Amino acid sequence: MDLHIAGRTAIVCAASKGLGRACAEALAAEGVHLVINARTSEVLEQTAADIRSRYGVQVTAIAGDITTTEGRDAVLAACPAPDILVNNAGGPPPGDFRTWGDGDWHQALQNNMVTPIQLIKAVIDGMIERGFGRIVNITSGAVKAPIPALGLSNGARTGLTGFVAGLSRQVAEHNVTINNLLPGPFETDRLNATLAGAVKASGQSLEQVRQARKDNNPSKRFGNPEEFGAACAFLCSAQAGFIVGQNILLDGGAFPGTL
Question: Which pTM value belongs to this model?
Answer without folding.
Answer: 0.95
